[in-house]
Design a protein that fits this description.
Length: 160
């Protein structure tokens, strides 16, 4: 659907490292296979994350957090291009009746660092509903220990 923009590649490489390092910090696992075996870093890691078969997305620290990253799998699932996704408040990826539950969940993630096995209903830009299963959601924390947002990854979903 969309392509990762070529502008801001440095920021994308930096964000990819933040995603992968934070995931490993909380879970002890690599976000994508082989990333910590010298295959990561720079555009190699950015490309691995962007082309990964699982959904990977994140939002920032705004009062109403806006999505700031979505890989190709996320773009396809939410039926958006890069520009649409990265200008969408994170809460709008869930249906209104699911948003209160989603907010409570993200409060738990903030308190504990990460949560595995999250399930919930989401909605694409065209109104297509899907159920996500076994998602891992984690806090993004940089090398200085500063909170930079939250991210999620999952492989399993089904349209409803």
């Amino acid at each position: 659907m969309g392509k990762m923009p070529l502008t801001g590649v440095g920021a994308t490489a930096e964000h990819s490292k933040l995603l992968a390092d934070s995931y490993r910090r909380w879970t002890g696992r690599d976000l994508v296979p082989g990333e910590s075996n010298g295959c990561g870093g720079g555009m190699d890691l950015s490309e691995k994350l962007f082309n990964a078969p699982q959904v990977i997305l994140s939002h920032g620290t705004e009062t109403d957090p806006v999505l700031n990253y979505g890989n190709q799998t996320a773009l396809d699932l939410w039926e958006m291009d890069w520009e649409q996704l990265t200008s969408t408040p994170s809460r709008l990826t869930a249906e209104p009746m699911e948003r209160a539950e989603r907010d409570r969940f993200f409060t738990q993630v903030t308190a504990h660092g990460y949560v595995d096995d999250y399930t919930g209903i989401r909605i694409s830009s065209t109104g297509r509903r899907f159920y996500i299963m076994n998602a891992t959601v984690w806090n993004l924390v940089d090398e200085q220990g500063i909170y930079r947002g939250q991210a999620a990854t999952f492989r399993e979903y089904k349209y409803i």
